[in-house]
Amino acid sequence: MIRVLLTDDHPVVRDGLRGALEGEPDIEVAGEAANGAEALAFVARHHPDVVLMDLRMPELDGVGAIRRLAVEHPAVRVLVLTTYDSDSDVLPAVEAGATGYLLKDAPVADLLRAVRAAARGESVLAPSVAARLMAPLRRAPAGELTPRELEVLRLVAEGSTNAAAARRLFISEASVKTHLLHAYAKLGVNDRAAAVAEAYRRGLL
Fold this sequence. Notes:
Elements: E1 2-7, H1 11-22, E2 27-33, H2 36-46, E3 50-53, H3 62-72, E4 77-82, H4 87-96, E5 100-103, H5 108-119, E6 124-125, H6 127-134, H7 147-157, H8 162-169, H9 173-187, H10 192-201
Parallel strand pairs: 1-2, 1-3, 3-4, 4-5, 5-6
GO biological process, one term: phosphorelay signal transduction system
Domain Response regulatory: 3-119
Protein name: DNA-binding response regulator, NarL/FixJ family, contains REC and HTH domains
């Protein structure tokens, strides 16, 4: 059972999310929080698997809460669910350690898939968000991966999860995610399997 905490300062949004999730046999709404501070307190007491996190909230915003959760409760996955997809929202959230980033206009089916993927530790990005993250890298010369990006790809090729790769390299999961996104852009691919295959094809691994 995937236990989910709903974090949003609008009760109507939380009610809608609860309605979307509660009918699923493998998902349980563990609780609700109206801001980042309440989310941190709830996670400390109840240890949910996934936190659905809005970004713009009073007291403690989403990015601040994500940063704290990454340090204090690294096993808890945070899936951002917000209205905003500007660079000033997306980049800080991903760098803080968010596992995924969805927009509130996403179909319910996409939300459910994202919750399940986040629980498995997989990154899920709205298409517009992925485009924003990768756009600055499109100009990078193909194949010119940094040594760290190659290290991450080697571990992925060996079957390591993001968490395992982070432990091996003594860096954060967020950093592993960032290195992978950079590698995807440089290799012209969209997922881990394709990145590994393309790296082998180019003789990089």
